[in-house]
What does this fold into?
Amino acid sequence: MNENTLTSVQTIGILGSGQLGRMLAIAAAQLGLRTHIYAPDANTSPAGDIAHRTTTAAYHDNAALAAFAADVDVITSEFENVPAAVMDVLAAICPVSPGRAALYTAQHRIREKTLARELGIATPQFWPVTSADDLKAAMRGHGLPGILKSSSLGYDGKGQVRIKSDDDMDAAFDSLGTDDAILEEIVDFTAEVSFMVARDAIGGISHFPASLNHHRNGILAQSAAPAPLHDEIIAEGMDAVERMAEALELFGLLALEAFTTVDGKLLFNEIAPRPHNSFHWTIEGCATSQFAQLARVLARMPFGATHIYGNWQMDNLLGEDMWKVPELLASAGTHVHLYGKADAKTGRKMGHTNRLLGS
Ligand SMILES: Nc1ncnc2c1ncn2[C@@H]1O[C@H](COP(=O)(O)OP(=O)(O)O)[C@@H](O)[C@H]1O
Ligand SMILES: [Mg+2]
It folds into this structure.
C-alpha cells in the first residue's frame, strides 16, 4: 500500500459523466476518496452531481485536460473510446487506468478478437470487412447468416446489423456508415456469460464470480450470479479474462463477454476495460463491489474480498420501465439504484435493481 493512502485524501479523476462514473464516485467516497469528473457535460450529469469537483470541457481541450490531471492523483475512464491522444496528455502528468494497450485493443472488435485468438481463446469465426465487395466475398465463403458490426464505437447493440445471404449487401454495408467493419458468424448460443477481474499496479489479480446475462433488443436486461454453468466453463472464462488482463498490462477492471454453445464451448465476444453493467449486482451481492474494487486499485489499497452473498439477480431499468419504480421501492429486499437522469427515453439506462434470490 502507498504510504500516503491513509494519511492524505486522494482524488480519483474520472473521464466520463454517466452511471459508471457515478457508482465509482459513490464507492470511492465510502473509502474516504474524492472524485473529479471530466466530461463535456460534467456539471449536470449522473457522475458530476455527486463528485467533489467537475471539469466541464471537451475531450480535445489539452489545457483543461492538463489542469485536470494536475488536480488528481490517478485517472480512470468510464468508457473505452477515449482517444489515445487524450490519454497521452494525461499520462504525462499522472497514472492512468486502464492503460494504453487495454484501450487500444478494447476500442476495436477485430483487435480484441485477434488478441483472444493469439492467446488461444476461441472466438466466433470473423472476417474484416472494408467494402461491400469484402462483405459479399465473406458471405459467399461463409454461406450462412452473419452479423455485421462497426469495428469501433458500437454499444448496446448499436452499429450492428444481421444479414442473410439474399440480403442487399451494398445497403447493409452502407447502413453502418463506416468502412472499418467486421462480419461475424451468428452464434447459436445457449447462454451469454461475463467474467471480470481487477488487476492492480503490481500485477495482482482478483476475480469476481461470473454473471449469466440476458439481452433484449441488444441491450442487457438481466444478469444472474453466480452463473449456473459447469465448473470447467467458469474456470475457462476466468482464465481467459485473467490472461487478457495480463497481456494488456491492465491497471483497473476488465470484463469479458462470452457465449456458451450446445457442444460445451466458450466463445469470446468482447472485452471492456471498465466497470460492466453485468456486475452491478456486486454492489449488494459481493463482499466488495466492482466499483469499490476499482477505487481500491486506483488508490493503491489492497483488494477487497469478492465472495458472493447467495444468488443475485440484477435487472436494468430502462426509460420505458420507470413506471415500475414506485412498486420496486416498496418491495422488501429489492435494492433500487437510480442514476439521476431526467430524460427517461426508451432504451436509455435509468437505473437497476439488485435482488437476493430466495429471500
Ligand atoms: N456473433 C454473434 N452471434 C450471436 N449473437 C450476437 C453476436 N454478436 C453479438 N450478438 C448479440 O448482440 C449483443 C450485443 O453485441 P456485442 O457484440 O456484445 O456489442 P455491444 O455490447 O458492444 O453492443 C450480444 O450480447 C449478443 O446478444
Ligand atoms: Mg456486448
